[in-house]
Design brief:
The protein is built from 3 helices and 5 strands, in the order H-E-E-E-E-H-E-H. By secondary structure, the chain is of the alpha+beta class.
Length: 105
């Protein structure tokens, strides 16, 4: 069974940012997911380009995907910096946990 965007997103929810104590999906670090029979491609970022945990988080993302996807599924994770991460990218649950509720528009 080929990978789906939902399968990929669910696997990435298991990857924690150790400094924030929250998964990378709810933190808004996952910018894009492409899943097809040809493989999986993920674009993600960090909260800062100076994040000391970036290598570990990307490695954890690879491991989570390898564990959730069919064997030999090609996985490509690209770390991107544009657009820069902001708290507005976080899920409502994450913003609520951190007390960063956004003002109404």
């Amino acid at each position: 069974m080929p990978a789906t965007e939902d399968t990929v997103r669910d696997a990435l929810r298991m990857v924690m940012d150790p400094e924030a104590g929250m998964n990378i999906v709810d933190l808004g670090l996952v910018y894009g997911i492409e899943a097809s029979g040809a493989g999986v491609r993920v674009e993600m970022t960090m909260t800062s380009a100076a994040c000391p945990m970036a290598d570990m988080i990307v490695d954890d993302a690879y491991k989570a995907l390898e564990g959730a996807l069919p064997a030999d599924t090609p996985i490509d994770i690209e770390l991107v910096w544009d657009p820069p991460w902001t708290p507005e990218l976080m899920s409502g649950l994450a913003r609520e946990q951190f007390g960063w509720l956004l003002p109404p528009r």
